[in-house]
Amino acid sequence: MDLHRRDLFARLGAAVVAVALPFAAHAGPAPALMLAGVYRPGVALEPYWLSEKYDGLRAYWDGQRLLTRGGDTIAAPAWFTAGWPALPMDGELWAGRGRFEVALSTVRQQTPDDAAWRRIRFMVFDLPAHAGPFTERIAAYHQLVRELQQPWVQAVPQERVASHAALMARLDRMVKDGGEGLMLHRGDAPYRALRGDDLLKVKTHEDAEARVIGHLPGQGRHAGRMGALQVETPQGLRFRLGTGFTDAQREHPPALGEWVTYRFRGLNASGVPRFASFVRVRPDAPR
């Protein structure tokens, strides 16, 4: 076995017992967030508001701290949250279209990089403690953001869509412009901490999360480095994830225990995702 390959397997073995902590501190229970289902043709669109699906990190302001959806405290600079209200805000920490890795590397730092945080925006899209339906909450969070007068805190615009054809045309434009996808939110829905049709994501592909449980060595061109990840879904289904990686990611694969996002095209008869490919490392575990 050559030195390069021995070094790879040594690093993979070390990953079994050394998984880096992604955030500064674990705050406790995960916040009770509204979670998105998946849009399918036939859903009546009249009750829904439409917005961009931001390619960032979900963040929850609980009135005192900025948390990930897993409940970890985000070490933002003091100025970033100074003057924020003592009421919850739900949103996305976003660095711009196609800049997820920039947002991730900024947010995961235990000592905040002030210059990097200047490029982050908190995109507010809901007020969890507001008792009214979403249509009323839209007006409320826009008013709150106006009163804050902080350029790094922005209210997510909402619009109506008339038909499935119009929705697909809007999705096509969004993707061509570098966006990730769209979100649909029922205007008459209260804020409920569950996954369902009150909130729907609209994308060109399906995606999901799985936990890394193994590294499989590569062959041929990938000999001496990672060939595939062995992953496990929250439901306990195990499968291999072997495409979608850069050469650098194969040299330094996600550590055991980390969660990754993958995209796929439906399921086969045994429930395994078809044509699954790696998208990115997730910063926190899914609920």
Description:
It is a single chain. With 287 residues, the protein is of the alpha+beta class. It is 22% helix and 30% strand. It has a five-stranded mixed beta sheet with strand order 5-4-7-8-9, covered by helices on one side. A five-stranded antiparallel beta sheet has the order 14-13-12-15-16. Strand 10 (181-186) and strand 11 (195-202) form a beta hairpin. The longest helix has 15 residues, at 3-17. It is globular and about 60 Å long. The chain starts with a helix and ends in a 5-residue tail after the last strand. The relative contact order is 0.17.
Give the structure's gist in a few sentences.
This protein is of the alpha+beta class and 287 residues long. The chain is built from 7 helices and 16 strands. 31% of the residues are buried.
